[in-house]
Give the backbone structure.
Amino acid sequence: MTTKRIGMEGSFAIAEAIKLARVEAIAAYPITPQTHIVERLAEFVANGELDAEYIPVESEHSAMSACLGTSAVGARTFTATASQGLELMHEVLYVASGLRLPIVMTVANRALSAPLSIWTDHSDAMAIRDCGWIQIFAENAQQAFDLVLCAFRIAEDLTVLLPTIVHIDGFYISHTIESVELLEQKVVDKFLPEYRHPYPLNPDKPVTMGAFGPPPIYTETKKAHEVALRDSKKVILKVWQEFGKLSGSHYAPVESYKTEDADVLLLCMGSFSETAMMSIDKMQAEGQKVGLIRLRLWRPFPTEELRQAVSKAQLLIVFDRALSLGGAPPVCSEIQAALYPLKTKPKIVSFVGSLGGREISIQGFEELINNGMNRAKRGKLDEFEIIGVRE
Amino acid sequence: MEKRDKIIEIRWHGRGGQGAVTSAELLALAAIEEGKFAQAFPSFGPERRGAPVLVFNRVSDKTPIRARVSVINPDIVVILDPGLIYITDVTAGLKEGGVIVINTTKAVVDIKSEFNGSWKLAVVNATSIARDTIGVPIVNTTMLGALVKATDIIELESLAEPLKERFGARAKGNSDACHRAYKETEIAELSGVVKKPTKTFETETFPSWQELLPGSVIPEAGNAKQYRTGDWKSESPIWDHQKCIKCGICYLFCPEGCIGQNKDGYFEANPYYCKGCGICARECWTEAIKMVEEE
Amino acid sequence: MESLAIYVPRLVTIKEYFAPGHRACMGCGEALAVRLVCKALGRNIIIANATGCMEIVSSPLPSTSWEVPWIHTLFENTAAVASGIEAGIKILTRKGKYNNKTKVVAMAGDGGTADIGFQALSGALERGHDFIYICFDNEAYMNTGIQRSSSTPFGASTTTSPAGKVSIGQTTWKKDLPAIAVAHGIPYVATACHSYPFDLMNKINKAVEVNGPSYIHILSVCPTGWRLASDLTIRAGRLAVETGIFPIYEVEGDRYTLNLDFPKLRPIEDYFKLQGRFRHLSKETISQIQERVAAKYSKLKERAARNNYQQ
């Protein structure tokens, strides 16, 4: 079903997915490291390879706002951004999900100013944690391609109707050339039916969208949104299963790597998980009982899958790539909240690192795991540590 | 009202723009000036000038006030606009032995049948007093005088400072209005069994979360037509058919779009929506439209 | 002066697209302007509405005053949302999935246009979307309680530009939005006021026919914020025009037309004295404003006359 493996930049793989999805409207604003995606899309439109409206807006705020418009009339809509751009969109994101408009977006994860940093970490993703979108993390170009395609199918499902973000690490996915297997157009067409919004803006049947919620009804609107987001997991599972049959690529909300006999688990998100796999390989070869789990699905949060994945572990080392300044690291605090009610649960060690593009090597992950095991042994579990800081 | 270590709760019924919020604020400031504890706050809604609004006070001699919630079971209700008793249950939740203070042109004997409960009723023609003393029919400060007379919740003199602060050069008129109302307020004891409220303040019904469409889309175009804004008015337009030339200027300039032609071709305002702004009367070429006070 | 000696119901559609039951203040000029605009637009439109008075009074869930498709999202992004709607219709039409020739209309107040929505407006005008942008200008942030905007006139007292012992109120001159719209080189720009309903509706009809962006700036009297009696709304709008404070004109390409011209302008006091927001102004300040109004008006008149000469 897939094409032969071809060499391609991650951004271009995403653009190929957008073309295959027959996206109808794109509104975007340039920002590093996302720009390659929309440049490629602009080229497709300019060459007539993709029949879509490309709106070259004057800001990310307007990008997401224009997406509200295109999606509300019933056009399949895509945009991409990163970092400050995502933050400029911030308030619009809540509107997109509150209005249940199934926009798909890729975020090329990047640090937040100040100081300005164009390099990757997860600060931007964590800052929009509560915006009510479905949020999925990819680890390489192939996953980015696959998950973006799946995102349309999930978002536009009539029982879901929620906007969806596929997070990719800036540069390490967006600007990296690697091998990708694409899908044929007819396969995608079968997998992804046309988008039909059930209540689009159209004079034939006038609707009001975006009425305000006075106190006697606001809570009901939010309950409906919360339930829709939670329940979207069923559709996500179904779509990924179907996609797996179609392409051979299988996805799950929480993915485990060599965890069968592991007492110690490292938990990561994003592309650096692949580097961590190599550390796990090495440590297992040396006889250490370590394994890796990755959160693929960030929202809705996969509580059951996480509990299942860590049920046999004694120690869980959580690696955050963002700070919640003055508070607990964001991923770790979610993990702790999910596991707290359980009677038996692993001890948790929390690390933060790889901020603003600082790399972590294979050996670096090995050291991190060893450091975590030492901390656990010494019972130093009460605070997190920022790793690799020059003193 | 006896001075106890008890929190007295007041609910004001007015219309947006009538100054009910100011009344409640002045009362709270005066009470605090006396060394009491007090609170004033409005119900925060989207309604505009002319729409019915609620404002709340709590006053106590000794007890600090913590409740940050609307007054459901008031000891006192103050009604700034006589028309409100026909469109909202102003005595809803009013305690046994509670006090009703109302602005009306009617005497106690003529209005007491509107209320059924063992309450104290205080009536004052605040509109007329306000016109005489302040020059405009804004009755909020006048009603403070009536409230003090009916309840002795504060001393009348305590209002002097807050009035001066609030109104500056216009304080005298407002203070005179207050004092005249204090003198002219007529009080009677009512008897009867407090009936269960027949209406609530929330006249609209709201859907459950399951009933909402995705994104809370509203598929029924123009369904706000069910909402009565005609309750807002204190004056109604009346057409003189002798003078009316059926030109339709009134129709064109109506912000509500509630003026239509009857079968004889004359224009009339739909009382369900008309807010009584008076534009039609002001703009009529032939002066065929007069604004007449609602009763 | 526009002649109103006609039988109105024969000249305008009886159909209301902005339904009664809205919660605007009594005598609201903006609600009247919206009602008239909607009558002229007809049913084949989609409206994107900015946050503001008209949004709040027309759409408390679960009710709506709108008889046409309508969307509200945020305060500052209305022109961008309208851009999206227009683009969405274009592609869906191209693909045979949309079968109406729908005009897209963006509506916002002066704050949503001149201040917070300025960038989105400029972007949408520059990109040339086929839509009408209507600014309902009531000269302050009325929805939040009469705060000054960059469209508030010089000397007006608002809650954030209050007249005080050492201040005359607003100390900046009203931002000239129609001129800024013209500077974008768009096909049609016009000013209008609800007190001249036929002129207003004609301009909307014209904008509907334009291919590309139109910008219409409607002075909308706010009795609450301007502190005047609710029945004086129409009169106040008329005086704004007759004093030259708010000239009614249109710009097609680079051709200016003064739609309502007066041989002699009324003194601005006639307009000011109706309104509480100007009550504090001294004679000196009023004559300062009068001078500026006269200069601006004659400049506009010259510009319109030049067109005629060229013709």
